[in-house]
Amino acid sequence: QVHLEESGGGLVQSGGSLRLACVADGLALKYYEIAWVRQAPGKEREGVSCISSLDGTTYYADSVKGRFTISRDNAQNTAYLEMNSLEPEDTAVYYCALDFFTSCEDSTKFEFWGQGAQVTVSS
What we know:
Order of helices and strands: EEEEEEEEEEE
Radius of gyration: 13 Å
Number of strands: 11
Structural class: mainly beta
Number of helices: 0
Strand content: over 45%
Low-confidence stretches: none
Largest sheet: 7 strands, mixed
Shape: globular
Mean pLDDT: 96
């Protein structure tokens, strides 16, 4: 019954920008921590960013801090990841992940996951 629909992925040149969106259906987004998790070929899933359901506190991996911005629009049941100054190292499948009123400590273990959006950054 829970469905997360991602959009906004694609191919971009180094230095470019993309905005990922995640629309949630079957739940009220306001009660959930929202994370973006990426997986590059041959690597484990890596938590990129997370935003708290309680007060909107945000978390960013060191590798993306200052370049990526996570946000949420609870009224629209939508989460976003604005990605700027993209680098080839950012190439991965990006997943929207949710968990109910928890912490952002380990987003790779969140309960609900989107289908993944491919982001490819060329050099």
